[in-house]
Amino acid sequence: MASSMSLSFSSSLLSSALLRPEPMPKSKPHPPNSFIVPSAVAGAVSDKKRHWKEGEYPGLSHHSIPGSSKKTPLKNLKKKLDRKNAAKAWVSTVTETLSDCILKKQWLQALQVFEMLREQPFYQPKEGTYMKLLVLLGKSGQPHRARQLFDEMVEEGCEPTPELYTALLAAYCRNNLIDDAFSTLNQMKTLPRCQPDVFTYSTLIKACVDASRFDLVESLYEEMDERLITPNTVTQNIVLSGYGKAGKFDQMEKVLSGMLESSACKPDVWTMNTILSVFGNKGQIDMMERWYEKFRNFGIEPETRSFNILIGAYGKKRMYDKMSSVMEYMRKLQFPWTTSTYNNVIEAFADVGDVKHMEYTFDQMRAEGMKADTKTFCCLINGYANAGLFHKVISTAQLAAKFEIPENTSFYNAVIFACAKAEDLMEMERVFNRMKDKQCPPNELTFSIMVDAYRKEGMNDKIYYLEQLQQELLNNGCLPSQ
Predict the structure, then answer these.
(1) Residues 249-275: pLDDT tens digits?
(2) 288-297, long-range: CB < 8 A, 24+ apart
(3) Phi and psi at residue 344, in whole multiples of 5°?
(4) Sequence-distant (≥ 6) Cβ neighbours of residue 190 within 8 angstroms
(5) pTM of the complete model
(6) pLDDT tens, position by position, 326-360
(7) CA angle, corner 145, sides to 140 and 150, nearest 5?
(8) At residue 240, does pLDDT exceed 80?
(9) Positions of the PPR repeats (predicted)?
(10) Which residue, 67, 245, 344, 460, has most beta carbons within 10 Å?
């Protein structure tokens, strides 16, 4: 290929006026297809030779004479273009495969495809690709692989950004590795172009809130103030949720009062949803309804998620009349019923083993063309388990596979719970092994369900094995919370 391009280049040189052959004396004829290069020009060509890399200098041959060989360059050029197009098509196909793996949260397959792409000299990974992989690894309980990928990215010359560092920090936060997250924050602070921003601090604050490390939350607030970084509404909503879940209602109201007085981070509908969720999940219906009215008086209008929170809270307390009233109110205001709406209703009936109404709601969901998700099937499986209908658990799991429902940790936990409920410990172990084979990380709930099942049968050796495995995953930072 290099020779074809060289011939083409030298031909273009020879066609210029400077490299035209000198008139040949009649007394000394030259053989066909040969010519004489003037000494001055030859010297010039020789001087320029050093600018070419080895193998690139076009040189001079009989092919260099204009008109002596026209087809070879075109033919070779076409081959080169064909190879380029084939390479581009290959990259496009494999890139689509990578995107599909990321979309399906298949982290191991995504890394394998990405490694295949990186080995190609014509593929240059972009910042967005690294970002998606870091986020995927964090969500999949693989923070150490996220760190490895980040280090490889830097070694290959891709300059890190605050966003990429924040994605790495988030991977640690998602897996309760707060010390590593703080270490990443300190590293960012030493790099002029990677200074932490409000999103970095919000991510770390959320991890501290989830771990009930409210002392660290206060220190992070002070650090933000020193760096003139103003907490935004998202940051405050995170802290509100944390205080609420921890039952620290005084602190929660203090933060909320500060938001009402602030001009930079006014409460929004997410604030409303956060407060409604806090009281709704705790079953404090009166407080939930009271705050709902307060937010309406503040001028904050509810959205579909707000109504879904109300429906879920009423469902858990078996207040079916109020649950139905909210659904009718949504129809009246032309708010669409979503998958979450149906999931909340299905869950309400599943919790009490009311299979009749659970199945009716699921059938209505499908009749309206609403797509079921993983939570839908988790609720159905739990409902059948609570009703003692284990054969329907199996058929529901098969239906989930038919619909290509992602089998995440929650899904496996639902099936493991059903097996434990049916006292089928052998099947429970098979499901747990399949979970590990699918690279789906167990969480605290997984171990809790299985340990309780073994304890009822006095299987202490099994309990010991699970405790050792749980500790190992915890030490490696691969044990996500519930």
Answers:
(1) 888 988 988 898 888 889 999 999 999
(2) 288/313, 295/267, 295/271
(3) -65, -40
(4) none
(5) 0.66
(6) 999 999 999 999 999 999 999 999 999 999 999 99
(7) 115
(8) yes
(9) 126-160, 161-191, 197-231, 232-267, 268-302, 338-372, 408-442
(10) 344
